[in-house]
Amino acid sequence: MDILAVKWTIWIVQVMVGLHGRNLSANSAVAFSLAKGLWTAFGIYWLISALRRKPVKEREPWHERLRHLLPMAIAFALVFRTDSHFGWLRVRFISGSVAMDIVGLWVTAAGVAFAIWARRHLGENWSAVVSIRSEHELIRAGPYRYVRHPIYTGMLLALVGTVLVLGEVRGLIGLGIAVVSFYLKASKEDVWLGREFGKNFEAHAKQTGMFLPRSGRAAGDAEK
Fold first, then answer.
1. Which of 20, 101, 131, 192 is least surrounded by Cβ atoms within 10 Å, i.e. has the fewest?
2. pLDDT tens-place string over residues 78-93
3. Which sign, positive or negative, has the C-alpha torsion 161, 175, 93, 28?
């Protein structure tokens, strides 16, 4: 297993489980705890599923992994470390309400479910870092039929939901950092997959979006 990725995952789970939504309203504190529970469930599933993976054929060096791991650690800390003093970053960008908490929780749950669905389809080809596995397969079933990186899509959607529950500026900044980090990592993965699968991946990329499905018109134009 990728020790650095596992340690990072454990740290994220510890951050979410160890905090208790202090300085939030009573209702939002409950909603935030539920959101953290959803993320914890995803983290546990991620760790268990990581036990079954194909051997590594090629992977990026450790110092390049940090370009993704460190920004993501900062993003998750901004969203989940409610016991820290963030000053103006704690200013609310949206008024807290039961309705917004419910919407945020549903969006978080939908994102987590989508990420797990995508992870199941990726199977033993999955890796926490940019790599190519032995006998690597180009998955085009399930969500991969429409999106090249649906795990990231699900995680970003779940972050959107959690930020809605949080309702503070620091959450928006953390979400922005996560979007950029996932985009850079996904772009690098596209390069590696293109090198490994050649025209098959090129055709796949023309029919799918990175995080969102291509529009019907865009997909049709790409096939010409």
1. 20
2. 999 876 567 888 888 8
3. positive
